[in-house]
Write a structure and sequence with these properties.
2 domains; Alpha-Beta Plaits; mainly alpha; about 5% strand; 4 strands
Length: about 160
Amino acid sequence: CMVSIAKFYLQFIVEESCGKCTPCRVGNKRMLEILEKICQGKGNMEDLDHLRNFANVIKDTALCGLGQTSPNPVLSTLENFYDEYLAHVKYKKCFAKKCKALARYTIIPEVCTGCTVCAKNCPVEAITGERRQPHFINQDICIHCGVCYTKCKFNAIIVQ
């Protein structure tokens, strides 16, 4: 997921920045907040405009080389992988399945044996169903942790 890669680079920049100039100190933190929001499925189209604007201001006004180049991963991913940003913002999907908040875990009824392993291991009890009957994941309760997916020995759970 290129959005999460841009977020990863920005986390590094925020941690390593000296903080002497406002564009770098404040702007990069703000861009990181926006990327986190997008990766959580809470972003909107305005956020993409804000990201681009912040990035251009930082690039033009930061005092050092680190600050001036800090928005490059964001600008480059916006330019070359805009469709991934759109998927996150408009459709609330991460096609690389890296952004956990955007993952949707679903049980395939025809494959589920009703062994209850997924339900027993779900930390928030989002999975219901009787033994030897197909189970169901309540999306309103699910925290997208992936425990059910890793515990299912029958590959009855898919990530969408």
